[in-house]
Specification:
four-stranded antiparallel beta sheet; single chain; alpha+beta
Length: 393
């Protein structure tokens, strides 16, 4: 395995057997899309803290949205999660943090495909696939993060409608979104059976966007507060079964957590690759800094940790393809993958010395962009709790 850096080098360093020739062609096509439609504009999106919606329309035109959506609704008709993985890896490796394609394809798409009835699919999925309709999911609240049972946003039945009140925060694609899957408490006495998923659409009276949140990193990715004040949501917008919202969330979280882990490791691998090149080019005391034993050992340790993690993630990815990924396996992937990524990027900053603290260097941006990964989608501590309970403890 060579350590030289070139633009066409794969995101993952080790030889993978998971992908077929058609996946490789898809990766090449998506890279070309990124180079043409994203790379020239992403710095401006970082400054604007918002991605131009036009890139969504172009992605839809080229078949990069809704790959798993059945063809009769305008999708690709291919539920192979490896295609989702390619998009996640390439977006992360290119540091195109503003693109919410993984949220759209990996997180909200399964809710719509599995839970929507025929009328809802006809109404939402075609535009979901063209990029005309950008999706989001609203779980987190100011007083309820990892503890989903603490959700206070309420929905009360009123004839053929539900009246929604409450607030959500840290919502990715919160500004651009046209369709938001909202987790609301519909029966305050029913515990976990008291939650329902309601689809709130843009311009529904009483639905407003709050602050575009000022984050440490991921600046181009719009993240905002959402507010609901007596929002009248038709009963036709209930997603799945009334009172089964919590269970629907639990069914869909494993693939979301695996997606986060894949993104974290793909980003860390690219940071490592560029740090190897830096260690070859940067000289101190008359020799490349990578030639010092400590630094060489450190890069070797990171390479090993990344490859071991990549191998496990590919095993989990195969589990998704085979329909066998468990919540515990996903929790392990999310915990271990994001923590390894955090460690690797931190060590890469150290190897860059003072330049690692300069935002003009990729490693500094990777440090601030990646820090959230051990938190969103379920914190490391929650992942350990899931694994520990599975042990009967």
């Amino acid at each position: 395995m060579g350590l030289g850096i070139d633009k066409a080098a794969p995101v993952i360093a080790y030889q993978r057997t998971l992908f077929e020739p058609e996946h490789d062609l898809f990766r090449e096509s998506f890279r070309a899309f990124l180079e043409r439609h994203v790379a020239p504009y992403h710095e401006q999106w970082e400054a604007d803290k918002l991605v131009d919606r036009g890139v969504w329309l172009e992605a839809g035109k080229q078949g990069f949205l809704g790959m798993a959506v059945p063809e009769e609704y305008g999708g690709g008709g291919n539920p192979d999660f490896r295609y989702n993985t390619i998009i996640t890896e390439e977006v992360t490796a290119g540091r195109y943090s503003g693109l919410g394609f993984s949220l759209h394809n990996d997180v909200t798409a399964p809710y719509l495909i599995r839970l929507a009835n025929e009328e809802q699919k006809q109404r939402w999925l075609p535009k979901f696939c063209t990029g005309e309709l950008i999706s989001a999911i609203a779980m987190t609240e100011p007083g309820a993060g990892s503890d989903l049972a603490g959700i206070r946003t309420s929905a009360v039945r009123d004839g053929d409608d539900w009246i929604v009140n409450g607030s959500k925060t840290f919502i990715s694609s919160g500004i651009n979104s046209d369709l938001v899957v909202v987790v609301a408490r519909t029966d305050p006495e029913a515990g976990h059976k008291g939650f329902t998923l309601l689809v709130v659409e843009r311009d529904m009276p009483g639905f407003t966007r709050g602050r575009k949140l000022e984050k440490m990193g991921l600046h181009a990715q719009d993240t905002s507060e959402l507010h609901f004040e007596n929002v009248r949501v038709p009963a036709a917008n209930v997603l799945g079964k009334e009172g089964r919202g919590f269970y629907h969330l639990m069914q869909n979280l494993p693939s979301e957590r695996l997606s986060i882990a894949i993104s974290a490791i793909a980003g860390a691998r690219e940071t490592w690759r560029q740090t190897v090149q830096y260690a070859k080019d940067r000289k101190a005391f008359g020799q490349p800094i990578g030639s010092f034993q400590h630094n060489r050992f450190l890069l070797a340790e990171m390479d090993t940790e990344l490859e071991v993690t990549e191998t496990y993630l590919d095993r989990c990815l195969q589990g998704v393809v085979d329909g066998e990924l468990s919540a515990v396996e996903a929790a392990k992937a999310k915990w271990w993958g994001t923590e390894v990524a955090k460690k690797v990027v931190d060590q890469c900053v150290q190897l860059h010395g003072g330049y690692g603290y300069m935002m003009e260097y990729r490693v500094a941006r990777d440090y601030v962009d990646g820090r959230i990964q051990t938190i969103f989608g379920g914190t490391t501590e929650i992942m350990k709790e899931i694994i520990g309970r599975d042990l009967g403890l």
